Amino acid sequence: MTIIFDVWDIDFMGPFPVSNGYSYILLAVDYVSRWVEAIATKTNDAKVVVDFLKYNIFNWFGVPNALISDQ
User: Fold this and answer.
1) What is the pTM assigned to this prediction?
2) Can you give the residue ranges of the Integrase catalytic domain (predicted)?
């Protein structure tokens, strides 16, 4: 049984036309509740993902048991 905030799906959207230097959106969706966390980003690299997870997911919801990504 999966509990809330225990499994997250994470993915980039884009590239989109540049707006204020941003061309990507990084999304994380909780598997159970469908809660969404998202940020606009300038790049789609690993550092962006690590910082996003650290500050937007782990600090608020704890460290999940699983992250699902297509990359």
Assistant:
1) 0.89
2) 1-71
